[in-house]
Design a protein that fits this description.
With 174 residues, the protein is α/β, with parallel strands linked by helices. The protein folds into two domains: 121 residues, Rossmann fold; 40 residues, no CATH class. The chain is 45% helix and 17% strand. The chain has seven helices and five strands. Strands 3-2-1-4-5 form a five-stranded parallel β-sheet, sandwiched between helices. It is globular and about 50 Å long. The termini are far apart.
Length: 174
Amino acid sequence: MIAIYPGSFDPPTNGHLDLIERGSHIFDELVVAILRNAEKSPLFSVAERRQMLEDLTGRFANVRVDTFDGLTVEYATRMKARVVLRGIRAISDYEYELQMALMNRKLQPRLETVFMMPAEQYSYLSSRLVREVAQLGGSIQDLVPDTVERELKKKLDPAIRRQYARKPKAGRRV
């Protein structure tokens, strides 16, 4: 059985890797599918995210990394996937993910969604929070793999962090 794990992975976190590892034990093949979303302004390019994820998942024989745009159900059909794997950290995630799963079922009734809770130590973790902490110069150790931490530090050199600190976005707290 083929499953896809779609997301932006900007950047990949230890929470993502937790789900990838656990999903690799459940499904015959797991495709980590990076969504190319033209409406978002990602910190890392699709190619950078793909390279990081390929490096991080290379130890799993049944995991591969791919990119897609458009509807998840159309991508799943092209991949011959029967399952969409999604992580749920909180009630707010569940409400959003339930809507998406029900819409996906409406569009493609044979496609199932499997929700997995992250390990407890990653239950609060999101790529958005990791980016925010890193941009403000905080420690992201234990939130992302070492390779991702190095890439974030290269991407967010001190000049960028200082510029971000001078112009905080309204409503941003960490």
